[in-house]
Amino acid sequence: MQSRTRPPERPPRTHPPTPEHPVSYKLTFDGRELPAQEGQSVAAALWSAGILAWRTTRTNGAPRGAFCGIGQCYDCLVTVNGRPNQRACLLPARPGDTVTTQEGTGRAALED
């Protein structure tokens, strides 16, 4: 009688990034670490975390977030990695991005 040996165990299968298996990473928003997935815009990453407003208007300080979602209205302006006036709905989220709420014109930090 022949002795049977078990085949070596295979490592778990890794999947290439697909909608079913996206690549995940972190970004920060106002000091809070948030998950993001490859292919998401900054706005999509914020929405996924339940954040709906990330700037205030110049005149009244009213909260704003994404409105049109296609870059036409400029309601979604945000500061990313120190650069103000970035359209969150168009800007791809990147690993390690630092996103901050933009207040007014977003130029206060540039005037120093």
What does this structure look like?
This protein has about 110 residues and is mainly beta. The protein has one domain: Ubiquitin-like (UB roll). About 5% of the residues lie in helices and about 25% in strands. It is built from one helix and eight strands. The strands form two sheets. It has a five-stranded mixed β-sheet, covered by helices on one side. A three-stranded mixed β-sheet has the order 4-3-8, with no helix packed on it. A hairpin with a 6-residue loop joins strand 3 (about 55) and strand 4 (about 65). The protein starts with about 25 loop residues before the first strand and ends in a 9-residue tail after the last strand.
Give a quick rundown of the structure.
The protein has 112 residues and is mainly beta.
Key terms:
three-stranded mixed beta sheet, 27% strand, 1 helix, 112 residues, Ubiquitin-like (UB roll), mainly beta
- N-C termini distance: 84 Å
Largest sheet, strands/sense/barrel: 5 strands, mixed
Extended strand count: 8
Number of helices: 1
- What structural category do the secondary elements indicate? mainly beta
CATH class: Alpha Beta
Provide the fold topology.
Blueprint: E1 24-29, E2 32-37, H1 42-48, E3 55-56, E4 63-64, E5 77-80, E6 83-87, E7 98-100, E8 102-103
